[in-house]
């Protein structure tokens, strides 16, 4: 389409739409398939920070972490074919973690489609099960419409990712089209009758528990749900890797339902007579493999509050189902007249005591005592706050069990269980919260899946500190082998580089710690360096988790096998 004085290219229309929808930061790996959009963003270089990443998977994980920590849609731009395939893992994480994201993917020209052209993929089919909505913009005059719907869809109801494919020739077309107004987030509100029913159920309960989780939590919503729990004296748990929703230092907080959960919390969950689940999906990890309640009838009263009506009754049938956004429900619940909860104070106090005992850091001993390391980390986070990111792996039990979170000490980890998340997530957090201490916890296996994004952090002046738990293996798989196939480890051994030397090659600060007394000074030096940093923790491979060792697991497995025979 020829250019006329009153027209804009598709790339320009798209850049204008991103700015109109409030985008201040976006992540990308450049590609020729969306060259016109990149060129249009040159004119926004002082208003939209465009962070150039080293791999599309890292870029997508950065955008996911941004969305998780800010509540705003994370924006990521990737090229067609291989770029989109790399980025798919970040999209899947955003989908399972209910994180708002808008992914823009370059596409082949429209006249070349359906010929298996260079790097051609049908993105509707590829992303169909890992995104809330996938579409392809065929004509440039519909860009404002598609972008408005994308941001609305990503943030409304249950938040999640949206993928838009951009044919490269469409971005070159010139059109005369008006910009759309900024998107509005739409979430349901709880009805008065449902709230009164909830209040009546709370008044009757002797052993209630509340479980909070999912996406869509603002600082205000988190404060409101704490106030609701306190007013009605409800012991409260967080679902898997949602630790910063509820203030961990509050008297009503009693832990999380996760991998390696406190056994006493599991017992309390099973014995409770009322479960109030707010935002959590009641998925496999949180429900300990769907074993905490019978299906579909839970055998007890269940109140399930969720932003998406499709989640209400998907697995467990609730006694009371409430479709609502988290902020809307939390504000309404806070405003309810409190019930008389004096008779169950002992129940709440016991749950809190169980949590305090579980998170009291024992002396693990050994050359490098990871418990002592966690004490040092806890001190520094308690002083000034910060952001903690984690990867998948057994090592994550140390920061998840022994650190304390709230809205000053934020937490970001993939409920999807994706490895390779913590490094880009820490880089994203350090770019977003420039003055906060950002600590990324990662195993040696997960670290090597995305180390290059530390170069991105250095390029943009971000200073995340990565704590690399180096045990020379894929520890989670090794633990499964010890439990199910003792004495037969295979495909888990890792030969690693010198991680401290690696970050120094990127211009960062590196330390190697193999003794307990070395950790605290190394952490302080890393913080003082003002650069991206790695502290490599050369740990005993036998120390596989916060609760046991590989040797104990194998001995128990062999004993059980001998008993069974």
Strand content: 15-25%
Question: Which architecture name of the largest domain does CATH use?
Answer: 3-Layer(aba) Sandwich
Please state how the strands of the largest beta sheet are arranged side by side: 3-2-4-5-7-6
Q: Predict the CATH topology of the largest domain.
A: Rossmann fold
Total domains, how many?
3
Q: Quick one: CATH superfamily of the largest domain?
A: Thiamin diphosphate (ThDP)-binding fold, Pyr/PP domains
Radius of gyration, rounded?
25 Å
Mean pLDDT: 95
User: How many strand segments?
Assistant: 20
State the distance separating the first and last CA atoms: 78 Å
Outline the low-pLDDT stretches.
none
Number of helix segments?
21
- Look at the helices and sheets and give the structural class: alpha/beta
Main β sheet profile: 6 strands, parallel
Helix content, binned percent: 25-40%
Q: Name the CATH class of the largest domain.
A: Alpha Beta
